[in-house]
From TrEMBL:
<feature type="domain" description="Release factor glutamine methyltransferase N-terminal">
    <location>
        <begin position="6"/>
        <end position="76"/>
    </location>
</feature>
<dbReference type="InterPro" id="IPR025714">
    <property type="entry name" value="Methyltranfer_dom"/>
</dbReference>
<dbReference type="InterPro" id="IPR019874">
    <property type="entry name" value="RF_methyltr_PrmC"/>
</dbReference>
<dbReference type="Pfam" id="PF13847">
    <property type="entry name" value="Methyltransf_31"/>
</dbReference>
<keyword id="KW-0808">Transferase</keyword>
<dbReference type="InterPro" id="IPR004556">
    <property type="entry name" value="HemK-like"/>
</dbReference>
<dbReference type="InterPro" id="IPR040758">
    <property type="entry name" value="PrmC_N"/>
</dbReference>
<dbReference type="Pfam" id="PF17827">
    <property type="entry name" value="PrmC_N"/>
</dbReference>
<feature type="binding site">
    <location>
        <begin position="120"/>
        <end position="124"/>
    </location>
    <ligand>
        <name>S-adenosyl-L-methionine</name>
    </ligand>
</feature>
<feature type="binding site">
    <location>
        <begin position="187"/>
        <end position="190"/>
    </location>
    <ligand>
        <name>substrate</name>
    </ligand>
</feature>
<dbReference type="GO" id="GO:0102559">
    <property type="term" value="F:peptide chain release factor N(5)-glutamine methyltransferase activity"/>
</dbReference>
<keyword id="KW-0949">S-adenosyl-L-methionine</keyword>
<comment type="similarity">
    <text>Belongs to the protein N5-glutamine methyltransferase family. PrmC subfamily.</text>
</comment>
<dbReference type="InterPro" id="IPR029063">
    <property type="entry name" value="SAM-dependent_MTases_sf"/>
</dbReference>
<dbReference type="InterPro" id="IPR050320">
    <property type="entry name" value="N5-glutamine_MTase"/>
</dbReference>
<comment type="function">
    <text>Methylates the class 1 translation termination release factors RF1/PrfA and RF2/PrfB on the glutamine residue of the universally conserved GGQ motif.</text>
</comment>
<dbReference type="GO" id="GO:0003676">
    <property type="term" value="F:nucleic acid binding"/>
</dbReference>
Length: 280
């Protein structure tokens, strides 16, 4: 059997050939997953031989990755906002760009205890990040998929975050009438159904219902922005993550609905990513 160093080198070569954008990272994460060891273990014991069982298991997960399956679905975990989250094929994989939405929401969060709503919560990543930073606030997450709500609830329990709760339903449907929120955040489906990116990379394995929206990707954003006016408290903020080419369209949509101070902020790569507006 090969040693850790040789197994990693061979895996990196194989992943490069399959088109992985991060072959070294993928190989290391997958081997750590198989060995149930931290990344430091690979660096400390490069000459340690793998057992036959370990090598076979590594080859199995490597084959899944070279076929295009996302690493997060293989390992069942992804870190977001420094929080380890369980993920599954029933939810989107939390991405670093979405942390920009969390940053902006924290900037608009009131300094007093308040209620926050996360629509289309998936793994609960956004809701849990906000709950971890705002322990005096109550954060509600909603998702139409039962599996997603269960996963978000499990993540909250694992992180010992008790100021969250997750509901099952379509957008505002499970929210009791008359409930008001200081912040409403959402990373809704915003990709046009004809977008060629849907057949590329990790997205191929993610749930289409969490990715695609009508009206060139704007239908769900319009629906949420329209109804949110009945659920935001006075001076409350609505924040959306959206596609890098949708900033202008989302700004116009929100302005037409009466939101004030509407602005679009960029992600870490300098692309339009989050649009926000205030209800006066």
């Amino acid at each position: 059997m090969p040693c850790i160093e040789d197994a990693l080198k061979a895996a990196i070569t194989e992943l490069q050939s399959s088109g992985s954008e991060s072959p070294s990272l993928d190989a290391a994460v997958l081997l750590c997953h198989v060995l149930d060891k931290p990344r430091s273990y690979l660096l400390t014991w490069p000459d340690r031989l793998l057992t036959a069982e370990q090598y076979q298991a590594f080859q199995a997960v490597l084959a899944r990755r070279t076929a295009g399956e996302p690493v997060a679905y293989i390992t069942g975990e992804r870190e977001f906002w420094s929080l380890p989250l369980k993920v599954s094929p029933s939810t989107l994989i939390p991405r670093p760009d979405t942390e920009r939405l969390v940053e902006l929401a924290l900037d608009k969060a009131p300094s007093v205890p308040a209620s926050i709503l996360d629509l289309g919560t998936g793994t609960g990543a956004i809701a849990l990040a906000l709950a971890s930073e705002l322990p005096d606030c109550q954060v509600v997450g909603v998702d139409i998929r039962t599996e997603a709500r269960q996963l978000a609830t499990e993540n909250a329990q694992n992180l010992h975050l008790t100021n969250t709760r997750f509901l099952n339903g379509s957008w505002f449907d499970p929210i009791e009438g008359g409930t008001k929120f200081a912040l409403i955040v959402s990373n809704p489906p915003y990709i046009d159904k004809h977008d060629p990116h849907l057949s590329q990379g990790d997205v191929r394995f993610e749930p289409v219902s969490a990715l695609v929206a009508e009206e060139k990707g704007l239908a769900d954003i319009r629906h949420i922005a329209t109804l949110a006016r009945g659920y935001l408290q006075q001076s409350g903020w609505l924040l959306f993550e959206h596609g890098y080419e949708q900033g202008e369209a989302v700004r116009e949509l929100m302005k037409e609905l009466g939101y004030q101070h509407v602005t679009t902020e960029q992600d870490y790569a300098g692309n339009d990513r989050v649009t926000l507006g205030q209800l006066k």
